[in-house]
Amino acid sequence: MSQNRTSAPSTAPDAGRATVLVGMSLAEANRRAELDGAAVPLGATTAFLQQGEPSLSAELTRLADAGAETVVLIGVRLGASGPGHSWLRRIAAYWWRERAGHRPGLLVATRLADSADAVAAAAASVRPITGGEPGLTSPAWEEVTGHRHQVMVCRGPRCTAKGADDSVRALVGRLAEHGLGDDDVLVVQTGCQFPCNQAPVVSVQPDDVWYGHVDPAAAATIVADHLVDGRPVAAHRLPRRRRDRTGREED
Predict the structure, then answer these.
(1) What b/e string do you get for 128-158 counting C-beta neighbours within 10 Å, with b at 16 or more?
(2) Of 112, 128, 177, 199, which one has the fewest beta carbons inside 10 Å?
(3) How far is CA 190 from the centre of its chain?
């Protein structure tokens, strides 16, 4: 075992040690009850890298202010996509470097848990945050991409419950098959886009085209017909009424 790796923390109560299950993607924010349930056997709390509350930074601040000496972070990714493990270390290290006052030691599980049942196994090996981890900026992230379309996939609770995770997986996979990356089509997962009865919902900008009931097969058709050939897909297109600044509907 390497010097910068240690065994899992004990689950016995320890006033100086805290454990946090960190939701990595939008899926965990939408499946919060599942994440909270996985935290109970470890006596852990939960936090999120995105969308959910509290954020990882907020939870680390709370624990530090409460006097925790060591905090163990276990990343959990229940969905098909989301930030990689390295982002858990980046965010934790950024907080640790910026923290003023009492700063607990941070230990991060060396792999993500992909289910509630896998949390204990993921906690079996942890590595400390040293402060030398990569930061939050990079020259590659300086400018807006040159994409011609931005595809927004709703990941609100209803869309997620109706399979948006499978839809975004199919969408990204088909784009890759056509050789399209972020500089062509930028895919963004969002919160609720409101026509919830049409879930899963996808909107394409700047075309202002909205789609409903986008299952994986519909996602593949949208990629081939709309994003590649420039022809919106009538079968899944939703009516779009727009209002001008006075509140009147436009044609």
Answers:
(1) ebeeebeeeeeeeeeeeeebebebbbbbbbb
(2) 177
(3) 10
